Amino acid sequence: MRTLKPQDARRIEALIGRMTLTEKLGQLTMMAASHTVTGPVITGHSVDDIRRGRIGNLLNLIGAAAAREMQRVAVEESRLGLPLMIGLDVIHGHRTLFPPPLAEAALFDPQAWALTAREAAREAAADGISMTFAPMLDVSRDPRWGRTIEGPGESAWVGERLAQAKVRGFQGTDLAAAESIAAVAKHFCAYGAVTAGREYASVDVSDRALLEVHVPPFAAAVSSGVAAVMPAFTDLAGIPMTAHGAMLRGRLRRQLGFEGVLVSDYNAVAELIQHGVAADLVEAAALALAAGIDIDMVSGAYLQGLPVALERGLVTLAQIDESVRRVLALKARLGLFEDPYRRGASAESAAAVAGRRRLARDVAARSIVLLTNREGALPLSTDIHRLALIGPLADAAAEMRGPWWSAADPEAQISVLTGIRAALPQAQIFHASGVEIVGADESGIAAALELCDEAQAVVLCLGEGATMSGEAASRAHPQLPGRQQELAEAVLRRAGARSIPVIAVLFCGRPLIVPWLAERASALLAAWFPGCEAGHAVADILTGRASPSGRTPITWPRAVGQIPLYFEQRSGGRPTDSGNTFSSRYIDESTEPLFHFGHGLTYGHFNLSCLRVTPESANPSDTVQIRVDVENQGERRAQETVFLFTHRLKSRVAPPLLELRGVGKITLDPGTRGTVTLLLPVMELQSLGPDLEPTLEPGAIEILVGPSAARASLLTGRLEIVT
Ligand code: NOJ
Predict the structure, then answer these.
(1) Mapping DSSP to helix (H, G, I), strand (E, B) and coil, where does residue 517 land?
(2) Which of 21, 407, 464, 569 is deepest in the core (most CB within 10 A)?
(3) Are 30 and 58 in contact, with CB atoms under 8 Å apart?
(4) CB within 8 A of 554, min separation 6: which ones?
(5) pLDDT digit string, tens, across residues 80-99
(6) Ligand 1 center–CA 299 separation, angstroms
(7) Among positive and negative, which fits the CA dihedral 125, 129, 130, 133?
(8) Which atom of ligand 1 approaches the CA of 186 most closely?
């Protein structure tokens, strides 16, 4: 077992020798805590269950004092004094909220991804938390799926890098440190491919899609030493992941070498009954344990069902001991035996908290994607002194938190209104919501329109509420909800008549289907959910204090009927762009996206030229250097992002049109030029052959470099692989 000290291994074996069956099942159980006015309660159980060893782990316990008290009961009042592992969904910050993963993915910056995870870990650990149910690594190509916001977007390549960075950030270099927490890579596997984007629905993907798209981010998490993995709620071609021995024991443990803890999703073991593969809790528990699930999260199936399953011979004591061993090993790695009170022992300094908010503002500004900008509508002119701020998301501080707010104080979030007022103290800011986020009331539109008559520019804050994405938030109509389109169209007409610019800022957990808005607004921004510093970050971008650099990590469709739409598609024998009737296209909609993967404008104007590939002929041990010159021909300092794609011209398996291989960034002053260098180890060009085994085929590869996956924007070169 990874990094387990010999004395810990001995201690664990000695403990297993002394534990009763109940105490063992307690270690394999995680129950949810919540709070009453007088302190924590455990849903459906009592603190006495900790004392009696029936509960060995908790989740959703918030606050250092509560965590310490529960830990004290476990350590000082239970027979064996085993410490608790305390888990929480620290997805994008704990008290200080950063943008959610999809928004952070827009940074294409692993260092920033690791940094926010590190800071979140520090904050959570200061509250006695030792495990986070993150990172979520589900690749999603379907914006209808609400959980798209929680993951890396459409690219497995991004998912792999996000996995590595987040595991590094949460776990640090020493998992036992007071500031480190165990990461849980979730949800294994292919949850992002739920049928029709409908939450919790069946998944049925090919083995190739599984191995090319859905497994790689988990493989990256495992090789980065992730402490735990959570299987998905869903079934994979009929086998619920919670009972999927071939995927959990086979693929994850044997093939990927995962040695850590498998923790079920919330109540997922009991839900095997609802899936229709278990008759009762006994069978459900037996199936999950046999598949390799170590911890049963809240269903109680292990506590209730495994004793009977043992009697009936459905499971063995050795299987139970194996899981107990893994759970205790993780507790040892977390340093919980050495000092169960290490996390949460000291309050954080004001300086640490302030530094974290600065980071949140910086990351939020960098996550915002400038989708369109006509005639230099942005940044706002410096002499603006009358600005209309319209829309239901303009003064909606709590919505800025996004889908997971952990222990964040709703009062501590900065609304756009507050941020703009702070950024433009000399300006008059007129504000009206116009309409609610959802709902049919249009009575506020008229008052909002009047503001347009007074203003020099309008900022329209539109989109989804925080809980309209995330878990259980699939949408069949991923458009502007409620009457927001009516509001926006009325504002566009009124402002258009007066020739004043309308800047639309979208708050959303997914790409929204808004072609009409993209065509008509003077500028369009995807702000996602920026987190606690939302208002300041949005104001930073609007005023030009920060230069936009975010790039969309997911394709924006023009129509729901185009979903799934992603850059890695294969051409087929009758490609989309072949220009004849019998090609892969729609008769009633374009096949082009609204915005390509990687799209994002800046306040600079970049020209890419002179693509060099060295060497042009390479063998498997080579690393190819790809260089491109970048010139900022604009009038402002800005950062350009350069994507490296490849396309195999011929192979035994039809190759995707584009495969992402690298991302480079360069910041340039106006009128200056530089070179971006990207390194491509030839072995990374391996693909899965017809037998699904990795193989490096000789032959020609197209090298494509540019600012997004829009093919017309890419410079092309050629590389010959010689094997
Ligand atoms: C259910 C969600 O699917 C999972 O992501 C989360 O970690 C658990 N609930 C615990 O809150």
Answers:
(1) helix
(2) 464
(3) yes
(4) 102, 140, 141, 143, 148, 153, 154, 510, 511, 566, 597
(5) 999 999 999 999 999 999 99
(6) 13
(7) negative
(8) 5
Q: pLDDT of 352-400, one tens digit each?
A: 999 999 999 999 999 999 999 999 999 999 889 999 999 999 999 999 9
Do residues 88 and 66 lie in contact, with contact meaning Cβ atoms separated by under 8 Å? no
DSSP E strand boundaries for 223-291: 228-231, 235-236, 239-240, 261-262
Which of 289, 314, 333 terminates a domain? The answer is 333
Same domain? For 460 and 504 the reply is yes
Same domain for 404 and 280: no
pLDDT mean over 5-33: 97
* Same domain, residue pair 311 and 385: no
Are 544 and 504 in a shared domain?
A: yes
Domain extent, residue 411, equals: 365-562
Confidence (pLDDT) at 45: 80
Domain shared by 512 and 402, yes or no: yes
* CATH for 185: 3.20.20.300
The pLDDT value given to residue 400: 97
Ligand 1 pocket test, pick from 129, 264, 265, 404 with the greatest ligand atom count within 8 Å of Cβ, gives: 265
Determine contact, residues 583/593, Cβ cutoff 8 Å.
no
Residues with CB under 6 A from ligand 1: 89, 133, 186, 265-266, 471
Nearest alpha carbon, ligand 1 atom 4: 265
Residue 88 lies in a domain: yes
Q: In the structure, what pLDDT confidence band is assigned to residue 38 with cuts at 50, 70 and 90?
A: low
Asked if the structure places residue 13 within a domain, the reply is no
Give me the CATH number covering residue 417.
3.40.50.1700
CA 243/CA 599 separation, integer angstroms: 40
- Token code pair at residue 502: 């309308």
pLDDT, tens digit (0-9, with 9 covering 90-100), for 115-154:
999 999 999 999 999 999 999 999 999 999 999 999 999 9
- Enter the tokens of residue 289: 């344990």
* Rounded mean pLDDT, 412-418: 97
Interval 640-658 mean pLDDT: 97
